[in-house]
Structures are given as structure tokens and as C-alpha cells.
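C-alpha cells for chain A. Residues wanted.
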């Protein structure tokens, strides 16, 4: 995203009542600071709702050159204590995004002892780094792309071949392979705290964060929708909260196994996903509404769609999707009726009869 795109994004988001937080949580070399100072001056003018930072030097720059924008301390600063949170608070931070490695007792202690106007944010769903809250140089070492500069290649998700060497026969390597694909020895399961939402709300945490790096709009819309509904439902009728119905929706979009990580138990070992599988066996991104018409809607397709497919329409602020079967498809160019369509070009579209009223940019989920 260039500066013009950023300016327009902030203007548009604010015009519809949404917030924008700019991530500037790199660990910066000295030669980067000239650029960072210019970015700070720009951000002070265009006023995002917060700047997420991990490096103390960058914090200093923002306090001098962007005094009108709130500073949020990134999870990559690895804040795991009240002492550390207070340090950043005294140095200008309004919000602290806590490290994912904290358990609930530690979070409770911080919430009970923090300054009143210090805001606390925590992760409730998404990928967990093999390293400590994203402080990782595996990607930089293997592919020259530094996670700490915002360009992680997710090397921890790759499959690796392992070899054993008998010490009396150096140079003779014997492969150790649980399957033909190797093993994903660094790959973690995804965090999921949907069951724990009541406890988290009762703690008084100010903001809940869903990790979505390199994820599709389909994934983001699905997961955010589930948690938004779960939180709102709990606040309305806490005694009726049933996490299972929300978990059932998350199961439809997950691409890895799920874990509560350390939230409930510091000794939890159910964290790693050695299979390396990153797909969902039952559901996939079907498409996105481009234009709705009660007879013939235009859909941007993301996977193969066929007449007879079961489709789920994700409705904003509603947990349960609208379900229907594809009855008719038409070619976008010829208007001829077709039986199926597969992605072939970028932003490929198809005409579809959708029996449910919907709006532009709503998401379609396809049952495999």
C-alpha cells in the first residue's frame, strides 16, 4: 500500500464509522529512521486511530513527530508483565497488545493492577508463531525475508525432511520421514478462545484481536463475524452463552487444528500441528457478490462452482448463514446458461441466481 492508498483508506474507513490502525512494528536499523520520520509526519496529518509499534526507537520518533496519534505497543514487544506494560505506558503508549504467551491468571493480575486509562488488547484467534510472539528470524535465515520487517515467508509452516547421522559413519544421512511429505516440526495449531469469551469479557480487556496475516477476505469475514456475534450475544444474555454453536462456524473456515495455547494451562502441550495440513476438508471460499439482482446476480468466483452446489451466504451481524443450492449459472460474457465454472483469470465472474437478498461484497462459502 502506498501513501495515497493509505490516505484514501483512512478517509473511507472514517466516513463509514470504522477505525484504522497502522502497523509500524518493525525493528528498525538506523538507516531506516529517515523514512520512519517522514512516515510519522504523514501519519500525524492523516490521523489513523493508532500506530502499532514494537521498537523503542520508533516510539521516540512517533512521540516527537506524530504527537496527535495514539501509540499501541505491538505483541512483538513481548509484554508479559505489569512492569513492562507500565514502562511503555510511561513512555507514551495508550494501549498494550499483550504477548500471546500469557495465561489468564497473568492477564487478570494486569487488568486488576494497571493504570485506569491504560488499554489492554489480547489475541483471541489465529496463527501462533513458533517463536516468542513473532520474534523470529527463521524466515530471514532461510529466505531473506525478515518477519521483524513485516515480510515473513512463514518458514515455520514449511515441511522439512529430517535425517539421522550415525556418529561412526559421518556423512551418511538416513531420512526420517513420517510421510512422503516430510514433517512440519515448527508448525503450531491456531489459537481459538471462543469458549473463553465470557472469562475474557469479565476481565475487562479493552480490545480483542484476530490474527489474519496472509488470510483471505473470506477467512477474515467468517472469523470476525463469529466472534462479533459471540461477544454481542454474551453481553445480551450471558446465562445463555453456548460456545459450541460458534465453534461449529469456526470449524467451517479453519485451515489448521485449534488450541487454547497457554490461556488456561501453562503446561498445555496440545500446541503443535506436525501434519502441516493447511486446508479445510469440508468448505472453501466460493465467491463474492459483485452486484445483486433478484433474478441474475454477478459473483466473483474463487473456486469451482457448479449447478447443484450447496452455498452458504455469510450475512453480516448474523451467526447462521443463509443456505441455498445453485439452480442456475450463466456465462458473464455470452449470457448462455452453463453447468459449472472454474477460476481461469483474475477476478473472473459468473452470473448466478441467488434466492436470498444480499448486498455487494457479501461472501459465499461453498460446501465441498
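Reply:
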Amino acid at each position: 500500500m502506498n501513501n495515497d492508498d493509505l490516505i484514501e483508506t483512512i478517509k473511507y474507513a472514517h466516513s463509514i464509522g470504522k477505525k484504522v490502525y497502522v502497523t509500524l512494528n518493525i525493528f528498525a536499523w538506523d538507516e531506516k529512521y529517515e523514512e520512519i520520520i517522514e512516515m510519522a509526519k504523514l501519519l500525524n496529518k492523516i490521523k489513523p486511530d493508532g500506530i502499532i509499534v514494537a521498537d523503542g526507537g520508533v516510539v521516540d520518533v512517533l512521540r516527537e513527530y506524530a504527537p496527535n496519534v495514539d501509540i499501541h505497543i505491538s505483541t512483538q514487544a513481548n509484554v508479559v508483565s505489569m512492569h513492562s506494560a507500565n514502562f511503555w505506558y510511561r513512555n507514551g503508549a495508550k494501549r498494550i497488545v499483550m504477548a500471546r504467551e500469557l495465561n489468564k491468571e497473568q492477564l487478570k493480575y494486569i487488568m486488576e493492577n494497571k493504570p485506569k486509562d491504560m488499554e489492554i488488547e489480547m489475541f483471541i484467534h489465529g496463527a501462533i508463531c513458533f517463536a516468542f510472539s513473532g520474534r523470529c528470524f527463521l524466515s530471514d535465515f532461510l529466505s531473506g525475508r525478515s518477519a521483524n520487517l513485516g515480510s515473513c515467508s512463514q518458514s515455520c509452516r514449511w515441511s522439512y525432511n529430517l535425517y539421522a547421522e550415525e556418529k561412526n559413519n559421518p556423512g551418511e544421512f538416513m531420512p526420517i520421514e513420517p510421510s512422503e511429505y516430510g514433517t512440519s516440526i515448527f508448525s503450531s495449531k491456531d489459537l481459538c478462545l471462543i469458549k473463553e469469551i465470557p472469562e475474557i469479557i469479565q476481565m475487562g480487556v479493552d480490545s480483542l484481536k484476530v490474527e489474519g496475516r496472509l488470510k483471505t477476505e473470506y477467512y477474515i469475514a467468517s472469523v470476525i463475524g463469529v466472534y462479533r456475534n459471540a461477544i454481542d450475544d454474551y453481553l445480551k444474555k450471558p446465562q445463555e452463552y453456548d460456545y459450541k454453536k460458534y465453534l461449529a462456524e469456526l470449524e467451517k473456515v479453519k485451515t489448521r487444528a485449534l488450541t487454547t495455547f497457554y490461556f488456561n494451562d501453562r503446561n498445555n502441550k496440545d500446541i503443535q500441528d506436525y501434519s502441516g495440513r493447511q486446508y479445510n476438508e469440508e468448505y472453501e471460499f466460493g465467491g463474492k457478490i459483485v452486484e445483486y439482482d433478484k433474478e441474475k446476480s454477478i459473483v466473483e468466483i474463487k473456486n469451482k462452482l457448479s449447478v447443484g452446489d450447496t452455498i452458504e451466504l455469510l450475512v453480516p451481524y448474523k451467526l447462521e448463514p443463509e443456505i441455498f443450492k445453485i439452480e442456475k449459472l450463466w456465462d458473464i460474457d455470452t449470457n448462455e446458461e452453463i453447468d459449472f465454472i472454474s477460476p481461469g483469470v483474475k477476478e473472473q465472474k459468473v452470473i448466478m441466481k441467488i434466492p436470498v437478498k444480499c448486498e455487494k461484497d457479501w461472501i459465499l462459502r461453498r460446501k465441498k
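The longest strand covers residues 119-127. The CA atoms of residues 178 and 275 lie 9 Å apart.
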